[in-house]
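Appendix B, example 12.
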Amino acid sequence: FIGEKSESMGRTEQEMVSGRSGINAEYGNVHFYNADTAELMDKLEGIHTDTISCLSFSDTGRYLYTCGNDKSVRVWLNRPGLLRDVESWRESLKTATNASHKDRLKQQITQTSSYLSKLDF
């Protein structure tokens, strides 16, 4: 957990960073940011009916776990993180010199892009 947790005016704010995605949780909402530019990338609003008390990324960074004072635990896809991965792989592909490395990068880009295109966001 990286960041701060502060109580003010009855709401809790939590911030954390995993890889290149940063998140901010405020009451029942989570906002995903580009950790390099602080640009808002995605948001989950109204996901808990009370304060979010805990945030955690999975070991791979693919999922975000939230738990709230509404006594629920939820699992979310870190969609902005996957989009950043695809962007990073595309950049790596431009400078890759090994054929097998290029093939693997193309495969990762294709598979992840296909997966993301099937999701309803």
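The chain has two helices and eight strands. Residues 1-14 have pLDDT under 50 and may be disordered.
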